[in-house]
Write a structure and sequence with these properties.
This protein is α+β, with helices and mostly antiparallel strands. Helices cover 12% and strands 29% of the residues. The chain binds FE2/S2 (inorganic) cluster. FE2/S2 (inorganic) cluster binds next to loops.
């Protein structure tokens, strides 16, 4: 079973498999949601759940408290949809939208 995820305010959409985290599905679809740890610790992926329902997997309370969850906040790295959902999140540029740059570097030390 798949669920439709709509990101506001951009209106971009992607599908999320049952049991899949919203962030994982977004990355697979090339939708650039922000994230850091991908395991519920940092809060970088935090946004709002505007419509629908999700269940959060294991996460740190400092990243998302029960009170925040009641206010509609969600951690998309560990949020698993149970219905089509509409979320509010800032978007970063998608993979492939960053120009590839070649920069000169020097290896100062290498330990094997
Ligand atoms: S990416 Fe760190 S809490 Fe979601």
């Amino acid at each position: 079973m798949t669920f439709q995820v709509t990101v506001q305010p951009s209106g971009r959409q992607f599908t999320c498999e049952e049991g899949e985290a919203v962030l994982t599905a977004a990355i697979r679809a090339g939708v650039g949601l922000p994230y850091g740890c991908k395991n519920g610790a940092c809060g970088s992926c935090r946004g709002k759940l505007l419509e629908g329902s999700v269940t959060h997997g294991v996460h740190q309370v400092r990243a998302l408290s029960a009170a925040d969850e009641e206010k509609g906040f969600s951690l998309f790295c560990c949020a698993h949809p149970h219905s089509d959902i509409v979320i509010e999140a800032r978007e970063v540029l998608g993979v492939g939208e960053f120009p590839i740059k070649k920069l000169p570097t020097r290896v100062a030390k290498l330990d094997r």
